[in-house]
Amino acid sequence: MGNQETGRKIMIDLLNNPAGDQDAYVMELQRLLMCYQVASPDDRNVVWAALNKYASKIDKI
Which residues contact 59 (CB under 8 A, 6 or more apart)? Predict the structure, then answer.
């Protein structure tokens, strides 16, 4: 799993993963997004509080 910078946008590069890993990764992302969509605003804030500690790594890509 890698990231590619295209202009100012970051894309997740799924093509570098073997087929099995790619399917599992896509399913994980789908599940994450579906859960996030039904989460309450308070729960979304908890998710962002946890993820913000990684933001500095993502912002540098």
Answer: none
